[in-house]
Automatic annotation (TrEMBL):
Organism, as annotated: Patagioenas fasciata monilis
GO biological process: negative regulation of signal transduction
Gene3D superfamilies: 1.10.196.10, Regulator of G-protein Signalling 4, domain 2
Keyword Protein biosynthesis listed: no
Alphabetical list of InterPro entries matching this protein: RGS (IPR016137), RGS_sf (IPR036305), RGS_subdom1/3 (IPR024066), RGS_subdomain_2 (IPR044926)
Residues annotated as domain RGS: 86-202
Protein name (record): Regulator of G-protein signaling 18
Domain of life: Eukaryota
PANTHER family assigned: REGULATOR OF G PROTEIN SIGNALING, REGULATOR OF G-PROTEIN SIGNALING 18
Keywords carried by this UniProt record: Signal transduction inhibitor
Amino acid sequence: MENPLLLFPQLNISASKDKAYYKIMKPAIKEEPHKSGKSGAKQKRNRLSLLLQKSEFHEGDHPGKPGNLTKAASVSPGEAVKWGESFDKLLSEKAGLDAFTKFLKTEFSEENIEFWIACEDYKKSKTAHELLPKAKTIYETFIQKDAPKEVNLDFQTKEVTSQNIEQPVITTFDAAQNTVYRLMEQDSYPRFLRSDLYLNLVKGRNPSRPTLRRRSRSFTVNDFQGVRPDFIIW
């Protein structure tokens, strides 16, 4: 009979005075392999826990979750109906602005309303000293090339706004703001009026989860491929 150690070179067969036991040995492990294995397992468990927490955070903070529509849900059907009269009417009411913003988040185009709100705030500046830092922030956030929340502007409007940014005045962003306003009024606003979010408010129902146009990824099973559990067979 052939020696089992020759057939299974990684199988260590050792015997004690009491009984025989078997261990699966890990190759190329230096110094305290058992202790190192425990440390590796702990790190993997911590990694899994962190990713699960991240997933829960995304779910709770998801723009399509009903919990994020609490303020809009408190609006009476009569108030919601008035939002359908005009885009101006919708934005003039805080609850309407809030509901429309949440709708744009489901379409991943909230940068448009955020830019419009920033421009409204900019125009409330009381001194020339306030204009420059605010103008710079708005330009770097929404207008310059590859800005983190770049809005869709035509070439001419973008060029004029960029030239005026060095010496900003109250009207510096008027052209850009009007362009984005018209875009929302003609494109996003009609979809908002047809959305479940709005229709449920009109009917006095709790808002249901809107359908997202693209999905976000927290983690998948593939993230754990190649991670093998640490165990010992006795």
